[in-house]
Design brief:
- The chain has about 325 residues and is an all-alpha fold.
- The protein is built from 17 helices and no strands.
- The chain is about 70% helix and about 0% strand.
- The longest helix has about 35 residues.
- The N and C termini lie close together (about 10 Å).
């Protein structure tokens, strides 16, 4: 098991390095520090002195990769690549280009609201998708199956914005069941999270149910299912014990995506419901052209996704021990 775990880590490290290099290329080679300065200064960017001052203020005045004027190892350490890109490996995300605040501090403050919203959405969506998909797969070819698939297509065809706006209108303005938007700390946050969590679960039902239904249909045609039914086992036992266990490997492939949303937030939900999480933080940074924040969030998202892949690989060995062999 330990050897398998170390092998998976060895596979993922080059991916993370490649992501870091790709982020550096996108933000400093394609879009140069001079371009960042001009976009941030707007009309004031006509003066070269102001552009240079902005670059010095934000640490973009150093050479990109190699500093020929610096002594010794500082030729590599006193560069934008080392200070702005490699530094993210040890959690140094620097400061915001627009506000000057510590990006790491902002992430630490905002990760918990994002987690509080994403966790019930993750669990609710996963349980609902598995249950509905299993029922539709067991009723294959019936009116229930056709109606369920039709409903899934409708849910997939409707933009999540429609669900958000309709949910705010119906549940908040008409029925007065939940606040339109806002956030609070402690247990008081519950009333602000119920509506966006329900909207998030409904949004993910269509595609998830159809996908999992395909996985379960493949298992329902196997011999072990017919054997279990021939033994007289209850249908619920056959479906949710035997079929579900054997279909877990493809189901687990979606876990990294859900894990990513747990920490980086649900962009639209956080923005429209005014939840101070990382999703709204990222959207505000994009709108403000705050490249430091966007760069940090892109890299952080890649790290979390890679961790999710590693956890999914480990979960595979629990579901099917043959994999680690």
């Amino acid at each position: 098991m330990l050897v398998y775990f170390l092998k998976r880590i060895a596979y993922l490290i080059p991916i993370l390095v490649g992501v870091n290099l790709l982020v550096f290329g996108m933000f400093f080679l394609v879009n140069t520090p001079d371009d960042m300065a001009r976009q941030a200064l707007g009309e004031k960017a006509d003066s070269p002195e102001q552009v240079q001052t902005w670059k010095e203020l934000h640490g973009y005045d150093l050479p990109l990769i190699f500093n020929a004027d610096a002594p010794g190892l500082q030729k590599f350490s006193e560069t934008i690549f080392c200070k702005k890109s490699l530094a993210m490996f040890w959690g140094d995300f620097g400061n915001s280009d627009s506000t000057g605040k510590s990006i790491l501090g902002e992430i630490q403050n905002r990760v918990w609201p994002s987690f509080a919203l994403a966790l019930p959405i993750f669990l609710g969506t996963l349980i609902a998708n598995i249950y509905l998909a299993m029922k539709l797969a067991a009723a294959r070819g019936t009116k229930l199956d056709r109606a369920g698939q039709f409903l899934c297509v409708i849910l997939m065809s409707i933009s999540s914005l429609i669900f958000i706006i309709f949910g705010q209108y119906l549940a908040s303005q008409k029925l007065r069941l939940a606040p339109v938007s806002g956030f609070a700390t402690g247990l008081a946050m519950t009333k602000f999270l119920i509506l966006p969590a329900v909207v998030g679960i409904i949004t993910g039902l269509g595609s998830g149910t159809r996908l999992y239904r395909t996985f379960f249909l493949e298992q329902l045609s196997q011999d072990y299912v017919r054997t279990a039914r021939a033994k007289g086992l209850p249908e619920e036992t056959v479906l949710f014990k035997h079929v579900l266990r054997n279909a877990l490997i493809p189901v687990l492939t979606n876990i990294p995506i859900y894990l990513l949303s747990l920490f980086t937030g649900n962009l639209l939900l956080e923005k429209f419901f005014a939840i101070p999480g990382l999703g709204g933080f990222t959207i505000d940074a994009i709108a403000a052209q705050d490249f430091a924040i966007v760069r940090a969030m892109v890299f952080l998202g890649a790290v979390i996704y890679i961790i999710g892949l590693l956890l999914a690989d480990l979960a595979y060995t629990i579901v099917d021990p043959r994999i680690k062999l």
